[in-house]
Amino acid sequence: QVWSHLRDMPFMFFSTDRLYFTALRVKPKNTASTHYFSSDEEFVYESFYSDFGPLNLAMLYRYCTKLHKKLKSSRKRVVHFTGRDPKKRANAAVLIGGYAVIYLKMGPDEVYRSLTSGMDSGFICFRDAAVGECSFSLSVLHCLHGIHKAMRHGFLDFDKFNVEDYEHYERVENGDMNWIIQGKLLAFCSPHHHSKTDNGYPLHAPEAYFRFFREHGVTDVVRLNRKLYDARRFEDAGFTHHDLFFLDGSTPSDLIVRRFLHVCESAPGAVAVHCKAGLGRTGTLIGCYLMKHFFFTAAEAIAWIRICRPGSVIGPQQTFLQRHNRICKEPILVHPCAEYVNPRRVHFLQFGWA
């Protein structure tokens, strides 16, 4: 009876007619031919303010491995059901949609059409972690495209993903670090003069990061916030340190964007980037790199960065990335001045002029 009712509801299914997605008020009982499960209570987003997703990379990984095991271990139909909460529905859609993109090799648009088939309305959009009204809507489809593009470019590979490391190092007490591009761009919160606990919040001196940075090939550190530690402590330890300050919550100048891109393009190893929390300013500049080198759209870049590091890219920084496609499409600079990039020089390099 439940299965016949399910046929009249919006659902997605794949080539084997075994995997379904729908919204139900109560969990049905499993049958000899059908297994039902929900992710709504198992994978829960930790909000900063009014933000509610998307869920982070570890949750996507754990969901995908769990679902893959279900499909491999039985020939039953597998129905992922979600409740009526629109926020949980959107997060659930990214999970099962992400599985379809990663494991079933389906295109994002094809997956989204299946997800919304028969629905009167689509999924609500995600919002940023700022206080107040949202000025930019991030859709489920944007998230699926971000996942697809990260996988296509090789920095999303669940066969090599270490979920324990991700969950360990994302914790504030363990450094509050997330790879956005594994082995190339790391986002983290600002170090401080001394390692201590301030009102229950762990703060870390530069020395707390040295071992991790060396073990993971980090050669350059970029600071975007005001000085909370002496840069010479990184430099004396063999790291190249760069200061590219701009105000908290604001957007960078064209000069800062160009200088940041040059640092990333010329660094011999990985680049660790931080502002105060490692979310807004950090995510914005990393987004510029994704847009330039991997041809992410602004929305795809924001989606992928937030999946890797929830809460990233805030307020006007979102529309800044949308407007900044031009500078992100400029050619890779081969021999620019480290302190200043002349826009005319960019034009000369683009056309092969010295």
From TrEMBL:
Q: What is its EC number?
A: 3.1.3.48
Q: Which residues form a coiled coil?
A: none
Q: Which GO terms describe its molecular function?
A: protein serine/threonine phosphatase activity; protein tyrosine phosphatase activity
Q: Name one Pfam family in it.
A: DSPn
Q: Which InterPro entries match?
A: CDC14_C, DSPn, Prot-tyrosine_phosphatase-like, PTP, Tyr_Pase_AS, Tyr_Pase_cat, Tyr_Pase_dom, TYR_PHOSPHATASE_DUAL_dom
Q: Where is the Tyrosine specific protein phosphatases domain?
A: 258-320
Q: Which UniProt keywords apply?
A: Hydrolase, Protein phosphatase
Q: Which residues form the Tyrosine-protein phosphatase domain?
A: 176-333
The UniProt catalytic activity note for this protein reads: O-phospho-L-seryl-[protein] + H2O = L-seryl-[protein] + phosphate
> What is stated as this protein's family in its record?
Belongs to the protein-tyrosine phosphatase family. Non-receptor class CDC14 subfamily.
Question: What is the designated name of this protein?
Answer: protein-tyrosine-phosphatase
From what organism does this protein derive? Answer: Neogobius melanostomus
